[in-house]
Amino acid sequence: MRLKAALLAGLIALSPIAALAQSEQMDEALDISRMLLNPPEGVDLAYGAFQRGYYLTALRLAERRAATGDAVAQTLIGEIHANGLGVPQDVPRAITWYAQADQNGDIQATFQLAMIYQTGAGVPRNRERAAALFQKAADSGHVAAKYNLGLLHVEGTYAEPNLAKAAELIGEAAEAGLPEAQYDYAIMLLEGAGIAPDTARALDLLEMAAEQGLPEAQVEYATLLYMGARDGSRDAQGAARWYGRAAEAGNAVGQVRYAMMLAVAEGVEEDIETAAMYRTLARRQGLTEDALDQMLRGADPATLARAEERARYWPGVPPSENPASDAPQNPSDAPLPNTLDTPPIPLADLTNAG
User: Fold this and answer.
1) CA–CA distance, 160 with 153 (Å, rounded to integer)
2) pLDDT of residue 122
């Protein structure tokens, strides 16, 4: 009883929001327990636990089914070990499980194996093996496998160099809603690479990919709007909006172009401070633009200083703007934008290679 009283006392001491969160976690745990004791027909308990973040429970449930040859359960075990979810990351062990699931007909396992060999994540890279696995998964209708196989046909090293086949596969993935495929297929339509040019369709696909949050598509779509590709008239407001979305997502090109529009009040209200902030963020990623430097050359030093401070704490807020926040007081402790991600090779570069 004293233990129960102590737990209740701790719960009462929490803020209303924290108490609600803890209560929801307890309810969720009870739901899992009830399902384990009396599962509804057709419910996949292992994946249910996985989706709720109960990885060890999911692993135990999946292992029981995997022993009977259940391919979906074997894939789930591979996923847990590949990503170190609740257990130490173990890619070789994940490969073993993915391979069993692949042999038992689960195309998601086939695709995951292909991605491991394609990237060399935790194992020696083997792109020939990856290509064969992408082909197998694509033949079974796996959307992302079609896209990756299409890229291999564009590259022409580990699959037959064939732009028409690449356009077919990437187009199918685009129609299925994959944003990366929508972007690449749009570029192919714009350039007539492996397919007849179709600017209107390319614009539609770029807009779809941009809406799904793909920064490269946001930048490309903004540029085409600025050039008047939709109806022949320049859409500066639309361009600024999409450049701004890409800038907020950390895309260096979007940051530079949005900064330029902010600096000259084209399609958006003038905001020298924010323009200077995005210039700094783009520079951190190695992108400079002389024209932008010229636009900001005569800016007020105090404005530029505030921009530098905002960039230092971006995407957070500097303490000077929010003194009551828990933001670090030492600028060196502040979060910096991630500059480690390597942008994908533009499709145009691949089609022009060799």
Assistant:
1) 6
2) 84
Does the pLDDT value for residue 343 go beyond 60? no
Q: How confident is the model at residue 332, as a pLDDT?
A: 47
The C-alpha angle with vertex 61 and arms to 55 and 63, in degrees rounded to 5, equals 100
Residue (of 192, 183, 264, 172) closest to 218 by Cα position = 183
The single-letter DSSP state of residue 194 is: S
pTM to 2 decimal places: 0.78
Please report the DSSP string for 314-341 in residue order: TTS--TTT-TTS---SSGGGS------P
Q: 303: which 2 tokens?
A: 């404005």
Helix axes 215-226, 252-264, angle to 10 degrees: 40
- Tell me the pLDDT tens digit for each residue of 147-184: 999 999 999 999 999 999 999 999 999 999 999 999 99
The residues, ordered by sequence, that sit 6+ positions from 168 with a Cβ below 8 Å of its Cβ are: 150, 194
Mark 265-277 as b/e (b = at least 16 C-beta within 10 Å): eebbeebbbbbbb
CA 117 vs CA 130, 150, 246, 309, 340: distances in Å: 5, 17, 31, 43, 22
Nearest partner of 212 among 240, 256, 180, judged by Cα: 180
In tens, the pLDDT along 31-44 reads: 444 444 444 444 58
What is the reported pLDDT for 323?
61
Q: How far is CA 140 from CA 41, 49, 110, 143, 349, in A?
A: 28, 28, 10, 9, 30
SS (H, E, C) 58-103: HHHHHHHHHCCCCHHHHHHHHHHHHHCCCCCCCHHHHHHHHHHHHH
Cα–Cα distance measured from residue 90 to residue 123, given in angstroms and rounded to the nearest whole number: 10
Q: What pLDDT sits at residue 39?
A: 46
